[in-house]
Amino acid sequence: MEHQVNEIQISYREKLSTLQSNSITNSNDVAQLLFKNWDTDTIGLNECFKILLLNQSNKVKGIYPLSIGGITGTLVDMRILFAIVLKTLSVGIILSHNHPSGQLKASEQDKLLTKKIQQAAQLFDVKVLDHIILAPDGRYYSFADNGIL
């Protein structure tokens, strides 16, 4: 009896050269980039969680929409998050999600999730540089700026 298995193929292709992008240097730059790449029609409707992927020079490789949730929350699957980070050979990440309510205070769940992702990232020598919470009106909250990271 012959055993057949699926062939696994892993690939990553850049449409835009990462080397030509700007380096991320502060939370305001990150927030502005995220707002430009967020659907303004839904930012006040439901929570979404995205990761910003960075190379060694903190240049943006891309933004990956990890999950879309409901009005008060969204789920983050750690396995998918790190599959994306590893597949893109990213060495730094910035976590982000929106609060449709406009409340910029980080919840206990936000803090626990960030810590969990940080601990897992250490195993892969990946740096979690920040976690940004966006409000529909253009304001943002940075974990790094507020000493949580």
Brief descriptors of the model:
149 residues; alpha+beta; 5-stranded mixed sheet; globular
Folded structure, characterized:
The radius of gyration is 16 Å and the shape is globular. Strands 2-1-3-4-5 form a five-stranded mixed beta sheet, sandwiched between helices. It is of the alpha+beta class. Helices cover 24% and strands 23% of the residues.
Secondary-structure map:
Elements: H1 27-36, E1 48-54, E2 60-68, H2 78-87, E3 92-98, H3 108-123, E4 127-134, E5 140-142
Parallel strand pairs: 3-4
Antiparallel strand pairs: 1-2, 1-3, 4-5
Helix-residue proportion? 10-25%
Query: How many strands?
Result: 5
Largest sheet: 5 strands, mixed
- Please provide the ordered H/E string of secondary-structure elements: HEEHEHEE
Could you say which structural class the secondary elements and strand pairing correspond to? alpha+beta
Mean pLDDT: 90
Strand content: 15-25%
Concise synopsis of the structure shown:
With 149 residues, the chain is of the alpha+beta class. The protein is 24% helix and 23% strand.
